[in-house]
Write a structure and sequence with these properties.
Rossmann fold, elongated, 460 residues, 3 domains, alpha/beta, 6-stranded mixed sheet, homodimer
């Protein structure tokens, strides 16, 4: 079967459905049955007649109609029998949410292997075990046991995320929902007994809805296939990788988490680079990079031009730019002269263009336009101190016009603060301009754009 | 004069007061005159008779009463004359907000030197120029040109921050206000023409209201005095340092920002360590460290014990712990046995104690208590996936009791998510338990506690 069945299944059985709110088998059923998913949903539990007003089946084989997908949330020892039954019923894909398998050692590993071999016999595919499963923003398939009250779901869009950790999955989904970043497909695959990263990456590489692929992983299974899948995909769309288990201590925790050893990190790191993947250091950076890559065009080079009404963050940004192998743009004399001529006397031309605390939106307009026109600048990086009261409300309108007039040069902003700053940040983000709360994070977003532009060039 | 005059002045003249909302001279006056500051406020501007309903003076010498502090926001060339006049009037402290001095090169540097020599003649002290000045949470002195609508002010408390960058000052103040972290004194000193870091650090070292000192700096003036002040202070309270200008590019930007070269970073780094200062990598880390140091006791060692209902972040945390020179605690057989006996079968004892997605608040209670009792654990680090619906609302009550019963072992939490998670995070922080949004940030908070505990031990 194609992996698309997981995302587009028209019928789902929840095996281990429960009447008790808060229980995993209850929350999964509720999320599938009571919200946006339009397919058929069948609760399965031998002890219940009815759950949430729906008829409850003793076994999956009792269900009168076709069942494409089964979500399993029962103790590990009962899973093999249920998988066998799913096979006989003609189920095509299985998501095993339950934990208690390979991550616990040999006994669990054996059950896991048994399950996979049963699935193979019937041509079924498995996601999990020990995971939160899948989410598709179009079909609204949603196998999570996180209630809607506790976990927001993102809108439809272009980012797909696959993750070995369900927890990072939750973080990602809520981050995307709050930032207004659209998601295409999401898979939490836990112990990865069957469907693995290479297969998912290739599937997403060919998926028209996905423009950016992000991966959180702990253990590397088949390293060669993984690198091949990244290599094949990265020429078409960015593949961002966050990998844990860089140290022995981390690797040991990974083993007890998802049953996989993390492997030698330096080897992984250079293999990823060769394959054209972009590695993020942590979850925050992964998200920062995703935001830049979905919102901004790719730059022609790595020369950054800054403009600000408070230069402290520019000092930190300059450090970070150099440490990341990028450059502070050296403005042409012509641009410097124009800046001097067109800006008020309190402004200091240079890189950064320091508009000082007296800056108005008009000053930003002049300075950003000149940096957009400057050939020696590849990425424009404005920092805003929205708290500085001379900076008037016209700034959003200014940025909107700049966005429309210069769609080809990327712009990455920085601003840090509380309510008022967050409001302005949101207004900028709503018009497609990414804003980061610290200079280092803005630079790492710019770095992702530049790195992917290099990858594209070298792989055409 | 003692630096305390700056923070406790009972009368302030605003020189360059303006009628126009949004202008720097208007906003400063407004913040001093219309909010919590109880001292006398005198607008000074030769062109106005009245501003904000207050009588406006042509010069500072016209003011009938004593003036302890003057805040100056006029073009640089007019500043020396005004400072001379302040001297004659008997003003004791001056905050020069205006920019356009040393940061612009030789001409500005000369004016700056002239100002300082005038001040010396009269025994006056200067903060600035090119800064946002001072804030005292008790006297409510507030020389900012950031309106209250745009920038929150923090409550009274134990953290003092001195910063060369006004922008980072704004970030810090709003962060503290939102996180509910109390601030004692705040100084943005810009070009640092007179009052400098060593003097401020020693003042804060002796200040009873200050328990944690944080510094953002670009250029080092007198390195020896700086290190002496840190060395003297760090045995009594933590001194956190964020220094920009690690690279040549950063140093160049610093020069045009506040007129100071940043110096050789490696030398600075090792000198800071020797003096007992704690260096933060960026503003986010500085804030993370402050939060831990004001909220938590110091640990006896560097062995971290984790507990979680979703282990992905623990893998990343373990990496980060080892990279920071700390250790994953190795639990005693006794603790492992107790965990096995007292926790439900779905839980996996070890470090982390993996309570899995089925975890309830009772499971956290059992596990955290056992880690608190375990001698081999110095810092307890719970990670929460609040999205996981089996985790009941009782968790805050559990943590409150643990806080009261184990006040001597530090606890640092991690949780990441949107609305619901933020609500739970806030509830934990309100009972004094710090929560961080990523595992790396939780670890850097733990690192600050451990590092300061080492500094204290070595300096007793």
């Amino acid at each position: 079967m194609s992996l698309s069945t997981f995302f587009e299944a028209r019928s789902v059985a929840v095996i281990g459905a429960s009447k008790t709110p808060g229980k995993i088998g209850h929350e999964i059923l509720k999320n599938l049955a009571l919200y946006e998913y339009k397919g058929k949903v069948y609760p399965v539990n031998p002890k219940e007649k009815e759950i949430l007003g729906m008829k409850c089946y003793k076994t999956v084989s009792e269900i009168e109609n076709e069942v494409e997908l089964a979500v399993i949330a029962i103790p590990p020892k009962s899973v093999p029998g249920v998988v066998e039954e799913c096979g006989r019923k003609g189920v095509r894909g299985i998501v095993i949410v339950s934990g208690g398998f390979k991550e616990l050692g040999d006994e669990g590993r054996e059950i896991e292997e048994q399950i996979v071999s049963i699935a193979r016999k019937y041509g079924m595919r498995i996601i999990g075990p020990n995971c939160i499963g899948i989410y598709d923003s179009r079909s609204k398939i949603d196998t999570f046991f996180q209630s809607r009250e506790r976990m927001m779901r993102p809108k439809e869009g272009a980012v797909s995320f696959i993750t070995q950790s369900g927890t990072f999955g939750c973080s990602f989904l809520e981050w995307a929902a709050e930032e207004g970043i659209g998601v295409a497909r999401f898979v939490s695959y836990g112990n990865r007994a069957d469907v693995d990263e290479p297969e998912l990456i290739e599937f997403l590489g060919e998926d028209e809805r996905t423009r950016v692929i992000a991966v959180y992983m702990e253990g590397v299974g088949d390293g060669r296939r993984l690198m091949q899948s990244i290599s094949k995909t990265s020429r078409r769309k960015p593949v961002l990788i966050l990998k844990a288990g860089r140290t022995k201590a981390g690797s040991r925790v990974a083993l007890s988490h998802t049953g996989w050893l993390a492997g030698e990190d330096r080897i992984f790191d250079s293999a990823i680079k060769q394959a054209g993947g972009i590695r993020a250091e942590n979850m925050e950076e992964l998200q920062d990079m995703i935001k830049a890559l979905v919102k901004q065009p790719l730059p022609k080079g790595n020369r950054i031009g800054m403009v600000t009404n408070g230069a402290g963050p520019c000092v930190m940004a300059a450090d970070s730019i150099v440490e990341r192998g990028m450059k502070m743009a050296e403005l042409s004399q012509e641009t410097l002269d124009l800046l001097k001529r067109e800006l008020p006397p309190y402004c200091v031309p240079g890189n950064p263009v320091d508009l000082t605390g007296s800056a108005t939106s008009k000053d930003y307009d002049v300075a950003i336009r000149l940096l957009m026109e400057e050939e020696r600048v590849d990425i424009v990086m404005p920092f805003f101190v929205f708290q500085d009261t001379p900076l008037d409300e016209g700034i959003i309108e200014v940025m909107l016009r700049i966005r429309d007039e210069y769609p080809e040069k990327p712009i990455i902003c920085g601003a840090s603060g509380a309510n008022y700053t967050r409001k302005k940040t949101k207004e900028l983000e709503e018009i497609g301009i990414p804003v980061y709360p610290t200079p280092e994070r803005a630079v790492s977003a710019a770095y992702a754009l530049w790195t992917y532009s290099l990858i594209r060039q070298s792989r055409q």
